Amino acid sequence: MSPKDSYSQFVNNPLGAKVASTLGLPQPVALRRYTPGEALATGPVLVIGESEGAHTIAGWLVDHRVDVRRDPGLKEKFSAILVVLDEAQRPEEVSAPLRTAGAALRRLASCGRVIVVARDPESTDTAAPAYRATHRGIAGATRSMAQEMRRGATANGILLADGVSASSASALGAVRFLLSGRSAYVSGQFVRVGSDAGAVPADHARPLAGKVAVVTGAARGIGASIINSLHRDGAQVVGIDVPAAGDQLAAVVNRLNGTALQLDITADDAGQRIIEHCRDRYGRLDIVVHNAGITRDKLLANMDAARWDSVIAVNLASQLRMNEAFLADRGATVSEQLRIATLASTSGIAGNRGQSNYAMSKAGVMGMTEATAPLLASTGGSMNAVAPGFIETEMTAKIPVATREVARRLNSLRQGGKPEDVAETIAFLVSDEAAGINGQTLRVCGQAIMGA
Ligand code: NAD
C-alpha cells in the first residue's frame, strides 16, 4: 500500500475542491491508471498532420476501433490529441498543427493525452540547421504544453530516429503506452524509437507470456510493484532480495506463483547465482530488472567511505558485474533477446543536495544503460532505464513533512507517483514491442521541476 496523500484526498471532495480553488492551491486529480484489456482510447481521438506517418497512425487507431477525427470540429471532446510532425523540415511548418492542437486543448477530457510525434534531433544524420532546429523546437514546445495540461492530462513526445517509420512496432507500441493508463505519471517526456526492431504481442493483455523475469529488491516498494506487473503481463517471476527480507520476499512471490532467491546482489557471483536459479527452475532467463537500491545521504563534506562505497556497490557496481555474466551467457540460459531495465532517478539527472553518492550511482546507471544497449542489440536484446521522481513509498514517507509536501507538488501533475507507475513503464520497456527503444532513460516523474 502506498502511503496516503491526505491533501489529494481533501481536494478531491467537493468542499476541499472549493477551498483549493478559492485559495488558488494545487488541485491534483486522481489519475487514470491501467487495467488489462482496457480500450486503446477512452473516447474520440484527434489526429493532426498530413504526413504518411499521420495517415499510418490514424489508420492503425481506426483498425483498433478508435473513433478518429482528422479535423477538430467545434464541439466534440477528445480523449487524446496526436500531432504528427515527422516530416517537418522548417519551423514555419509546425505553427499551424501545434496551434490547432492548442485550440482543441480546452476540449481534452480529464486524464486525456497529447502525443507529439517528431524526429529525434539527437539521432539524425541530417546536418541541415533548419531541420535540427525544427525537431528540437518541437520537443521544447511539447515540454511547455505538458506544463499547461490540466485535470490529470499529460503531453509527451515520440521521437523517431532517421529511417524509422511511424508504422514500426515500437513507434505504435509507444503510442499504445502513452495513450494507456500505464503512462499515468509520465508527462513532458520523450520516448525515442531508434530502430524498426520489435514485435507486436499476440495478446495485449499478456505481452510477457512465456518469458522468465527476474526483479531485484522485490520484497517491498517499487520492486514488489514491478514483479506484480510483470506477472500480470504473463511472465513467470523470480524475486530477489537480501536474506533479512526473506519473509517479505516469500510473501510477495508466493502470491504470484513465482520463486524467491535470497541473495545480496553485491556478491561477486550474484549474476551466476541468478543464472543457475533460472536454469534449474525454468531453463531460461529473458528479462532482468535491476531495482534494488539504497540511499545513504550526507553532504559530501561529511561523507564517510562506508556511505559512499555501499551506495556505489549496491546501486551500480553490482549491476555492471551481473550484466557481464548475463551477456556472456546469452544463447545458453539467458535469452539472446535479453531485456534489461534498471532504476535511475531524477537525482541522477539534476543532482540533489546530500546525495552526491546516490546521484553518482544513478547517473552511472544511465551511462551503463547507454553503453550496454548496443551490446545487447547485437543479438536482438535491449536495455533501458527508468528515472522515477517523487514516488509514494516507505522511503519517501520518512522525508520530513514540509520537504515531502514540496517534493510531492513540484511537478505538473501536483502529486507524487505510485510504485505501479514505475512498474507499468518498466513492463512496457521490457516487452518485445519496445525492442526498438534502446539505451534510453525514461522519466516517471509527473514532469518534476527537479531535473528539468
Ligand atoms: P525500498 O528501500 O523500499 O526497496 C529496495 C529493496 O531493495 C528492499 O527490499 C531492499 O531489501 C532491497 N535491497 C537493498 N540492497 C540490496 C542488496 N544488496 N541485495 C538485494 N536486495 C537489496 O526502495 P524503493 O523506494 O522501492 O526504490 C526502488 C528503486 O527505485 C531503488 O533503486 C531506488 O533508488 C529507486 N528510486 C526510488 C524513488 C522513490 O521515490 N521511492 C525515486 C527514484 C528512484
Structure description:
The protein has helices spanning 6-11, 14-23, 52-63, 95-104, 129-147, 169-179, 221-232, 246-255, 270-281, 305-328, 347-350, 356-377, 394-397, 401-409, 419-429, and strands at residues 45-48, 68-69, 78-84, 108-119, 154-160, 190-193, 212-216, 236-241, 259-262, 285-290, 334-343, 382-388, 441-444. With 452 residues, the protein is an alpha/beta fold. Helix 7 packs across helix 15 (419-429). The structure holds nicotinamide-adenine-dinucleotide. Nicotinamide-adenine-dinucleotide binds next to helix 7, strand 8 and helix 13.
Structural class determined from secondary elements: alpha/beta
Low-confidence stretches: none
**Could you give the order of strands across the largest sheet?**
9-8-7-10-11-12-13
Please indicate the percent range of residues in DSSP E strands (runs of 2 or more). Answer: 15-25%
**Distinct compounds present:** nicotinamide-adenine-dinucleotide
State the end-to-end CA separation: 29 Å
Given the C-alpha coordinates, what overall shape results? globular
What is the share of helical residues? 25-40%
Radius of gyration: 22 Å
The beta-strand count equals 13
| Sheet having the most strands | 7 strands, parallel
Structure annotation, total helices = 15
Mean pLDDT: 94
Give the SSE string.
Answer: HHEHEEHEHEHEEHEHEHEHEHHEHHHE
